[in-house]
């Protein structure tokens, strides 16, 4: 235990080492802690964190499971900086930025 260990109280968060869509449109994330997550497209779309889907001032979700159409698929994604991806969905929605932190939170949801 040196001084540096004391200055870094938090363990580094797991980060994706690889992510992409499979044939069914699931987002598959491989993490640097050895885990792998698979997010179903409609489920993930219904958890879009953008200001159109979640009211900024209240934090209430406006677009969720009930509003997202069946069969919505990802059309593409772009990396945003070194911490997030932005997904273009087949329902023309593309403002959602999914950060590593957010995906990590979703990873632990059932
Ligand atoms: Zn959104």
Low-pLDDT runs: none
Ions, cofactors and other ligands present here are: zinc ion
Number of self-contained structural domains:
1
Major sheet: arrangement of strands:
1-2-3
Shape field: globular
* Major sheet characteristics: 3 strands, antiparallel
Order of helices and strands: HEEEHEEEH
Gross CATH architecture: 2-Layer Sandwich
The percentage of residues in β strands lies in 25-35%
Number of helices: 3
Global structural class: alpha+beta
Count all strands and give the number. Answer: 6
Fill in the CATH topology.
NE0471 N-terminal domain-like
Distance between the termini: 37 Å
Kindly state the percentage of residues in helix.
Answer: 10-25%
CATH class: Alpha Beta
Radius of gyration: 16 Å
Q: How would you state the average pLDDT, rounded?
A: 93
């Amino acid at each position: 235990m040196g001084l540096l260990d004391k200055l870094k109280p938090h363990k580094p968060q797991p980060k994706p080492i690889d992510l992409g869509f499979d044939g069914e449109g699931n987002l598959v994330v491989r993490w640097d802690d050895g885990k792998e997550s698979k997010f179903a497209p409609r489920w993930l779309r219904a958890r879009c964190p953008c200001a159109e889907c979640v009211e900024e001032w209240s934090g209430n979700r406006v677009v969720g499971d009930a509003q997202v159409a069946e069969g919505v698929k990802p059309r593409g994604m772009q990396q945003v900086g070194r911490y997030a991806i932005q997904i273009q969905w087949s329902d023309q929605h593309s403002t959602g930025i999914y950060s590593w932190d957010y995906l990590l939170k979703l990873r632990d949801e059932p």
